[in-house]
Write a structure and sequence with these properties.
- This protein is about 40% helix and about 15% strand.
- With about 280 residues, it is of the alpha/beta class.
- It has a seven-stranded mixed β-sheet, sandwiched between helices.
- The longest helix is centred in the C-terminal third of the chain and has 14 residues, at about 265-275.
- Specifically dimethylates two adjacent adenosines in the loop of a conserved hairpin near the 3'-end of 16S rRNA in the 30S particle. May play a critical role in biogenesis of 30S subunits.
- This is Probable ribosomal RNA small subunit methyltransferase A.
- One of its GO terms (molecular function) is RNA binding.
- Keywords: Cytoplasm, Methyltransferase, RNA-binding, rRNA processing, S-adenosyl-L-methionine, Transferase.
Length: about 280
C-alpha cells in the first residue's frame, strides 16, 4: 500500500491566506508533525466521524480525510471556511467533509467519534473543557505550558486545577513537543500535543459541578493548607460552612497544600464538604 500524497502546506497557505497572529492563526506546515498527529489517537479509537476545530488552510484536514471516514471542520474565519469548501470540494460533494463556519464555543457540535485539532491558543482552555465532558478521544495542540499543566501529577510544580479537572474526564498524556518552527507564522512559544483518553475517574464524587468548583476554590489558595483554603474560599466553592468541613475532615488531609493533594483526596474532601458544609 502506497503512502497517500498530501497537499503541500505552504502551497495551501499561498492559495488561501497567510495566518494572522492577532487572530490566533498559526498554521502547521511541518509535514512530519502533520503526519504524526492522527497516529496519536488511541489504537482502538473510533474514527468514523472526526471533528477538527480550527481547520485553517486544511493541512491537517487533508490527513484526517484519510484517517477517518467522515470529517467535520469548525472554522470561524469566513474566508478560510470558504477556502476549505473549495479546496476539498470533492470530499464535500461526497459527503465525507462538512465545513461549519462559526465559533467552536457557540456552534452546535456534531455527534463526533474523536477530535483531532490544532486549537486557537487564545480559547484553547474553553474549547478543551467543552470537549472533555463529551467523553470522546481527543488529540489537541496547546501551548506547551498549558499542555504540561493538563498532564501534571500531584506534587509537581505544574500540577493545579487544570490537571485535576482534565483528569476527571480522561487519562491525559503529553505525547509530543512541537517547535515554533513547525508553524507559519511562528508562535512565540513551543507547543505540545496532548492525548485525552476518556474514562471514568477512580473515585466517586457527589456532584461533578460541585467537585470541580471545590477544586477551583482550593487552588486559589494553593500556598495555604487545605484547612485555610476551605475556610477562605466559601465564596467560590459555594459552601455555607467551611468550619464544619474542617471539623469533620481528616487532619492528614487538611495539613496538605493543594498542590500535593491527589484527585482522589480532593474527592474525599469534597464528599465531606457536600455532606456537612452546604
Amino acid at each position: 500500500m502506497t503512502d497517500p500524497e498530501y497537499r503541500d502546506p505552504d502551497a495551501l497557505i499561498r492559495r488561501a491566506k497567510r495566518g494572522d497572529p492577532e487572530f490566533d492563526q498559526h498554521f502547521l506546515v511541518d509535514d512530519r508533525v502533520l503526519d504524526r498527529i492522527p497516529t496519536h489517537l488511541p489504537a482502538d479509537a473510533d474514527t468514523s466521524h472526526l471533528l477538527e476545530i480550527g481547520g485553517g488552510t486544511g493541512a491537517l484536514t487533508d490527513r484526517l480525510l484519510v484517517a477517518g471516514e467522515r470529517v467535520t471542520v469548525v472554522e470561524r474565519d469566513p474566508d478560510l471556511a470558504d477556502f476549505l469548501r473549495r479546496e476539498f470540494a470533492d470530499a464535500v460533494d461526497e459527503g465525507r467533509l462538512t465545513v461549519v463556519e462559526g465559533d467552536a464555543l457557540d456552534v452546535s457540535l456534531p455527534d463526533f467519534s474523536a477530535c483531532v485539532s490544532n486549537l486557537p491558543y487564545g480559547v484553547s482552555s474553553e474549547i478543551a473543557f467543552r470537549l472533555l465532558p463529551e467523553k470522546r478521544p481527543l488529540v489537541l495542540m496547546f501551548q506547551y505550558e498549558f499542555a504540561a499543566r493538563m498532564a501534571a501529577d500531584a506534587g509537581t510544580d505544574e500540577y493545579g486545577r487544570l490537571s485535576v479537572t482534565a483528569g476527571h474526564y480522561a487519562d491525559v498524556e503529553l505525547v509530543e513537543t512541537v517547535p515554533k518552527e513547525a508553524f507559519d507564522p511562528q508562535p512565540r512559544v513551543e507547543s505540545a500535543l496532548v492525548r485525552c483518553t476518556p474514562r471514568d475517574p477512580e473515585y466517586e464524587v457527589p456532584d461533578d459541578e460541585f467537585f470541580l468548583d471545590f477544586v477551583t476554590a482550593c487552588f486559589t489558595q494553593r500556598r495555604k493548607t487545605m484547612r485555610n483554603a476551605v475556610r477562605n474560599t466559601t465564596h467560590i466553592s459555594g459552601l455555607a460552612d467551611g468550619d464544619a468541613v474542617v471539623a469533620a475532615a481528616e487532619e492528614s488531609l487538611l495539613s496538605k497544600r493543594a498542590g500535593n493533594v491527589t484527585p482522589a483526596e480532593f474527592a474525599e474532601l469534597a464528599a465531606v464538604a457536600w455532606e456537612v458544609g452546604r
